[in-house]
Write a structure and sequence with these properties.
single chain, about 260 residues, alpha/beta, Carbamate kinase, 9-stranded mixed sheet, 9 helices, globular, binds uridine-5'-diphosphate, kinase, AceGlu_kinase-like_sf
Length: about 260
């Protein structure tokens, strides 16, 4: 018998028993601003608490874009090598994780920060079995440092960790209602998709997650739910499998699994 139980059937009205919640760095900042806002931190922490209280195991993968993204930073700073800039971006995710951890702790959640980059004073090393144990013990885990290697984004980390910890779904939190045919902030005729297959995302060149992440999810049939976290209660709705956002997955699963 394996000593690590795979994610089993959820109970009650809970649709997903174990999720990866992908939070971009910008979700911790005020709209249009950089850095970290206490209001945004607490607002998202409260939503995470409600989702956790519904019985869902939550692993958060943090971004760092509110502080620094490697590709754009190295583009603007020629003296910094691109690989170095990506490591700086990974460190930015650690900064965000520490802030989020304290916000979650302050409202009574048990948390652990784990990092793919060694930062032993502030975070545990990411060890798959240990991460699963934390979840089983009711802790919210915050997975920082991406995958610990440059030239990818935390979207890839979200897909990678979802596979490793056998999360049922990747909940990709965004500021818009889901995936649109075009940028809804620029094109008033942009259409919101209710569901998409991985191939549609690739063929239509929809900017959902980076290409590596989509390829991993496609290969392993890991569903992604893109939804608007700014609407209060949406994280709980997402873990319950209520109809929020855009569901991306295997078309075979679409009818039975989402709607
Ligand atoms: N990054 C990296 N490897 C990883 C994850 C992240 O090099 O495994 C770097 C990359 O430069 C990225 C930055 O960290 O741009 C911050 O992450 P991301 O852009 O995904 O943040 P988000 O857009 O989600 O806020």
């Amino acid at each position: 018998m394996p000593d690590i139980a795979p994610s089993s059937q959820p109970e009650g009205d809970l649709r997903y028993r174990r999720v990866i919640l992908k939070l971009s760095g910008e979700s911790l900042a005020e709209s249009g601003k950089r850095g970290i806002s206490d209001n945004e931190l607490l607002a998202i922490a409260k939503q995470i608490k409600s989702a956790h209280e519904s019985g869902c195991q939550i692993a958060i993968v943090n971004g760092g874009g509110n502080i620094l993204r490697g590709a754009s930073f190295s583009g603007a700073n020629a003296s910094v090598q691109e690989a170095t800039a990506h490591y700086m971006g990974m460190l930015a995710t650690v900064i965000n994780s520490l802030a989020l951890q304290d916000a979650l702790d302050s409202i009574g959640l048990q948390t652990r920060v784990m990092s793919a980059l060694p930062v032993d004073r502030v975070a545990e090393q990411f060890i798959r079995r240990r991460a699963i144990r934390h979840l089983e013990k009711g802790r919210v885990i915050i997975l920082s440092g991406g995958i610990g290697s440059p030239f990818v984004t935390t979207d890839t980390a979200a897909a990678q960790r979802a596979l490793e910890i056998e999360a049922d779904v990747i909940l990709k939190a965004t500021r818009v209602d889901g995936v649109y045919s075009d940028d809804p902030e620029k094109n008033p005729h942009a259409v919101l998709y209710e569901q998409l297959s991985y191939n549609e995302v690739i063929q239509k060149k929809l900017r959902v997650m980076d290409a590596t992440a989509i390829a991993l999810c496609n290969e392993h049939r890991k569903p992604i739910l893109v939804f608007n976290f700014k609407q209060d209660g949406n994280i709980v709705r997402a873990v319950r499998g209520e109809s929020v956002g855009t569901w991306i997955g295997d078309p075979q699963d679409t009818q039975t699994n989402h709607r």
